[in-house]
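ESCALATION

Customer reports they have been waiting on this structure for their group meeting. Please prioritize. Original submission:
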Amino acid sequence: MALPLRLLLRFADADGEQRFVRHYVAFYFRYAQASLLLGIVLVLGDYLVDRIAHSDGPANLQRLTVAVPVLLGGLGYSLLPQARRLWQPVMSSFIFAVAVCLIGILVRIDVEGGAGLKSWVGVLNFTFLEFYCFVILGVQFRHALSSGAAIMVAFLYALWGHAGLSTEQAAYWTYHVVTVFILAAGIGWWREYLLRMEFLARTALDDSRLAAEERAMRLAHYDEATGLPNRRLFAELAAPALERFRRVEVGCAVLHVEIDRLGGVNDVFGRGQGDAVLAGIAQRLRACIRGGDLAAVQ
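Update from on-call: job pushed to the front of the queue and completed.
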């Protein structure tokens, strides 16, 4: 399983990618639920601060009547049984819906004369949305990238078309908005890259440990040269078979085969050739016995 260093971060192996996605969702799911609660708290904080600093206009009230219910909807979805399976695409769409709500509210606050989209509050909200998308909510980068870009486009559309700014002012804020987007996207990319590297290293370690355990188990029960069960495994398999034959009063036979002059083969041609002779004999034995018979090496 290889990790390609490309923009959208995807393992070349489809099975490896699926394993990583399951690991990723399991790692971030509870964290993302807590992030949804954090989003609700922050929106409520914005409402209270704006109410203290300015008059409690209809636009500010929409933080409670529109933005908070959307966040509660996302939290409610996370409690559904199928939430984990569709978490990535749903949450990437959800954060865009939250962004559209907040951008619309900020535009209305500007109209009412408050500190909205065209103030530092607007850029601060945009910064929160981008980092919420790329980092806090735990959405995979390839999903977060489309949502983050859509949020930026929606914000710039509102900034240029509905904020009433001059061209110079809009260009000034656009520079900072694009900078925040690039920064958030870079951090999100790097976060997932490190998580993929950690997953890759852990998977390789688990695979090597599993292979070592399987090899140790095989060496404990099978002869390395012939691949036949050794005396230990033969005893484990033969005991219940003999007991079964005894209960039904059916006879069975044990055939003991010795190989003459094998030591001479080892002396003349080496141990490797002797093992090859044993492997050939084992192969012939397997071809001769029936399906219910057992061939083993002493």
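Sent to customer with the following note: Residues 222-288 form one domain.
Escalation resolved.
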